[in-house]
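Protocol step 4 of 5: obtain the predicted structure for the target chain.
Materials: sequence only (see below). No template structures provided, no constraints applied. The aim of this step is simply to have a reference model before the mutagenesis design in step 5. Sequence pasted as it appears in the construct record:
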Amino acid sequence: MTSVTAAPLIEVDEIHTYYGKSHILDGVSLAVGSGEVVGLLGRNGVGKSTTLKAVAGLVHPSRGEVRFDGRPITRLPAHRVARLGIGYVPEDRRIFPLLTVTENLRTGLDRRGMTAARKKELLEKVYAYFPVLAERRGQAGGTLSGGEQQMLAIARAMMLEPKIILLDEPTEGLMPRMVSQIREIIDVLHREHVAVLLVEQNVPLTLDASQRIYILEKGVVRHHAPAAALRVDDAVIHQYLGV
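Step 4 output (structure tokens):
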């Protein structure tokens, strides 16, 4: 298994997935340490999103294993994976457009052991991190801008108090100002000791935000290196991504 800079939190070990007869992931292995930000790069259609879905329990590999904190979770349904402390923010965000911002956030609080005081504390904490959401707390989620909806999706995942958040293309389609805010949110998660597995087409942002990088090509991990090494020698980035 690939070494990590901290204790392994997520371990993906030689997983294979298929969509029909199409072999999407062909023995993918990677690891994310506790509190670590790890980037997953690759061209479109190489299996990045499928890798996140396999960790989140939305796709079940035909072979291989996914482990969380040393525990096999490969066959667990998605709702049980989430309860373990794995937050997932999909590419299409999937907020509830007719619910208000606060109502969207409260969907992440409906779980056992949550007292009214604790729910209030978590809401206030998230609103402190996302002032724009605090300003729009009574507004329907579907009326928010794309960037605000992305913030809401990340904030909702944070309400679960996860140990790791899987972020799928968080800056896609956003204006530069919003991109920089998403970058700051990743830093917030890192400071909160929440690990992040980041799938992102914005290569400079991924290299800047991550400690380590995996590069996928045709469902296979072709390269793994510290982000710092790729920032000073980007020949591999040019080779596999053409940027």
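Step 4 remarks: DSSP finds ten helices and ten strands in the chain. Residues 68 and 185 are 23 Å apart (CA to CA).
Proceed to step 5.
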